[in-house]
Amino acid sequence: MSVLNRVALGLGLTFLYAPILVLAVYSFNASALVTVWGGFSTRWYAILFADRPLIDAALVSLRVAAASALVATILGGLAALALDRAGRFAGRSLFTGLVYAPMVMPEVITGLSLLLLFVGIGLDRGIVTLVIAHATLGLGFVAVLVGARLKGLDLALELAAADLGAGPLRVYATITLPLIAPALAAGFLLAFTLSLDDLVIASFVSGPGATTLPMRLYSQVRLGVNPEINAASTLLVAGVTVIVLGATWLTGRNAAKAGPTYGA
User: Fold this and answer.
1) Quick one: 134 and 158 in the same domain?
2) Are the beta carbons of 35 and 212 closer than 8 angstroms?
3) Which of 146, 141, 151, 152 is nearest to 177 (CA)?
4) What distance in Å separates the CA atoms of residue 98 and residue 83, rounded to the nearest whole number?
């Protein structure tokens, strides 16, 4: 890599991550003014954990993220299995497009479409609609990770199990599922992160009693930024970073263990 490329990369990373670093530093600011450093203090974290509405919003986000990630992992895993193992079938192209469309669709369009769907079928907006929306967003990412793992599997193991008399379900449960487990875990963590971080789609499909943490933070920022918001944002960024690193580690481990493909 040339010096110019390194400088450009460094400037780009600084532009992206310096504001997050400043936010984290000023979450420990003793002053109530977010732009004036008044010394080191953890008072805003104490105030944060005493803020009941914010804690309730965080709990809603965690519940929705866990439920939607579970649904996305199940559906995304099954979709990847169908695309990799079912061969050519009627409507395959349409099915593929439906699985991967939420990954590239603008979130505003996705949120509006889901809102119209829920209104059309008479489903009240709340936790259930949030889970459905976030599961729709995450299942494509799960399908990509699981599909990549399936393409790297040694099919001889599954064929050997079938030759020994195991049925398709038993082969899947005893051979395929353990081998794709790291990809499923990585997909779950990624879907969890997407749900936890989402603001746009949640703004369309949430209802009374279903305010997520990003929605709560956004509503408070519109009234003015204070160090408590910095503290909440820092914790959210830290949590998302840990989850993403875990998903990256599982994906790397998954790729390292992938064997050659047979029977392609």
Assistant:
1) yes
2) no
3) 146
4) 12
Do 67 and 95 sit in the same domain of this protein? yes
What is the full DSSP assignment across 167-213? -HHHHIIIIIHHHHHHHHHHHHHHHHHHHHH--HHHHHH--TT---H
Instruction: State pLDDT tens for residues 74-117.
Output: 999 999 988 887 777 888 888 888 888 888 889 999 999 999 99
Residue 155 shares a structural domain with residue 232: yes
* Count of the separate structural domains present in the chain: 2
Rounded to an integer, what distance in angstroms lies between the CA atom of residue 86 and that of residue 75?
15
Q: For residues 219 and 184, what is the distance between their CA atoms, to the nearest angstrom?
A: 34
pTM of the entire structure? 0.81
Taking a C-beta distance cutoff of 8 angstroms, is the pair 18, 229 a contact? no
CATH number of the structural domain spanning residue 131 = 1.10.3720.10
Give me the domain span that covers residue 9.
1-41
Q: Rounded distance, CA 252 to CA 258, Å?
A: 10
Q: Is residue 29 helix, strand or coil? A: strand
Q: How sure is the predictor about 255, in pLDDT bands with cuts at 50, 70 and 90?
A: low
Contacts of 146 by beta carbon, 8 Å cutoff, 6+ apart? 76, 77, 80, 81, 180, 183, 184, 187
220 inside domain: yes
